[in-house]
Amino acid sequence: MEDIEAIAVLQDPVRRRLYDYVAAQDHEVSRNEAAEGAGIQRTLAAFHLDKLVDAGLLETESRRLTGRSGPGAGRPAKLYRRSEAERQFSVPARDYRVAADLLAEVAEAARLDTELQAAARREGRAAAGPIDGFAAAEALLAARGYEPRMDGEVLRLTNCPFHVLSERHPTLVCGMNLALLEGLTEGTDGLRARMDPRPGLCCVVVEISKNKSD
């Protein structure tokens, strides 16, 4: 029920704009920045941001942006970031997480890594279709929930669609994820997926291959 109530909070268009803006940033967002990003007044932004915090969709902390402390350092600013908690609901109730966790546990015990990666690579190939360059790859990855962001010539994936499973079965699930993205990028000109695990990001990045043909 909590997930349904949290998602219902996003039905308000202002809250949705604020949430989308905060979620899209790679840093914590102040009330002033959020208001400017959503095109609304600061007081209205503050009200809706705190509603999003109450619903568990955003997290907040207070910090002085000047980096100074003591007298004259100014008041701490309230900063917002997307919550780490996952939200989902279905009607009637379904529990695919438990099924996925059990299947992953069995696959690990049976050492089915190779078979799982082969299946993931086939799924990636089937889902990809023709991809021509970074823009098309970025759109495809965004549609699959990876939330890609450009970082030089690399697409960093700021969301892992398999986050909960990857925490419980990292070797199995990260290997599957890499194989899936290898399949997605296999037919592209000069793009490749590779492992590059970093805190808070997906374990895979997509980059321009050094073996790209001229």
UniProtKB/TrEMBL annotation:
Protein name: Putative ArsR family transcriptional regulator
Organismal lineage: Bacteria, Bacillati, Actinomycetota, Actinomycetes, Pseudonocardiales
